[in-house]
């Protein structure tokens, strides 16, 4: 059945009901490179175009309704257009969308971050996770006086040249045209879940920092093995190297205090984004006061001695108020139990389906995030991800689209849940996967 027949049938279903999206994609391709604003949104055979969204649902321009398991790249833990956030943003719009001056909301959100994030003593905001990673690594260099940064294979830290390295196997090829090789010379690469390799490089390379996603995100939702994060903390302490957690995905998703709370390991600097902005553009970095004082223009008036951080829209009131309302909603304690239970349910259900179907697949994830890997063994690092059967992964995506289930990672299915998802959504997702597994079983 998997000799193309099932996939063509799913594709035909999708094409027949997305004619307006096809027409719009043709127009988009004349004005947007590749027809999209971000390459990962280029779905096969073409993307559907969203008209509006609410809760766990997307409504496209053809009138189709999808259950969304991408939820704004994982940023919308409360689902689309949560009333509390929307009402606050509407009110703020009448007060001003952008001031260009200091205002109380930036202080209020920073105080919330300090309250909730174990590593946070001081905070600075940015407009994206990429910016936050850029400023975090610069700050680490300013503080330590060292230049080398170590990152992990499969780790995604945005488009900043210094960190845009070793994201996809085989990890030695350039990740983008136009990268300056000189910018990458001081970026060293480590295998995830390998403490011996980390210790060896830390002892021999005079590192300013080791940066990692405590749970690999686009690298396949790979969780740290017991002792791995603790071991990195010890290695950094023993070599006067800073430990940076990129919690753009895991921050406020796995727990109020992010992965560092869940796993009990506190970094020196934390990079934030996504959920922090409550659906609006944002990034942030937080950490120890003695490190962050190196951004302080009053303490270091000489720009050569200070680590610069800033930008026109940083701390803008729209992102601040959306973030405040989102974090306050999370503080009330009704979200994590719900989304984590659904995460456990969907991971267990998927494992059962593939075990019964004889399709080689394994499930990774934690809390409200999960990934499907079409291979026999559960991956422990990004090299293992390269073993996945991409043909099956893409077929699953086409199947799910035909059944009105959406996510934006066809070749490596990884997804997010929100508080707007309910048990019925999970059951429909599992039923769709069951149909897929029957269609492609050996």
What characteristics describe this protein?
442 residues; alpha/beta; Aspartate Aminotransferase, domain 1; Aspartate Aminotransferase, domain 2; 2 domains; 15 helices
Polypeptide structure, described:
The chain is of the alpha/beta class. It has two domains: 5-77 and 335-440, Aspartate Aminotransferase, domain 1, CATH 3.90.1150.10; 83-331, Aspartate Aminotransferase, domain 2. It has 15 helices and 14 strands. It has helices spanning 5-16, 19-31, 83-95, 104-116, 129-144, 181-184, 195-205, 228-238, 258-263, 289-292, 317-331, 336-357, 382-385, 390-402, 423-440; strands spanning 50-54, 57-60, 65-68, 122-126, 148-152, 187-190, 207-212, 242-246, 269-273, 283-287, 362-366, 369-373, 405-406, 414-416. Helix 7 (195-205) packs parallel to helix 8. The longest helix is centred in the C-terminal third of the chain and has 22 residues, at 336-357. The radius of gyration is 22 Å and the shape is globular.
Briefly, what is this?
By secondary structure, the protein is an alpha/beta fold.
Give a topology summary.
Blueprint: H1 5-16, H2 19-31, E1 50-54, E2 57-60, E3 65-68, H3 83-95, H4 104-116, E4 122-126, H5 129-144, E5 148-152, H6 181-184, E6 187-190, H7 195-205, E7 207-212, H8 228-238, E8 242-246, H9 258-263, E9 269-273, E10 283-287, H10 289-292, H11 317-331, H12 336-357, E11 362-366, E12 369-373, H13 382-385, H14 390-402, E13 405-406, E14 414-416, H15 423-440
Parallel strand pairs: 3-13, 5-6, 5-7, 7-8, 8-9
Antiparallel strand pairs: 1-2, 2-3, 4-10, 9-10, 11-12, 12-14
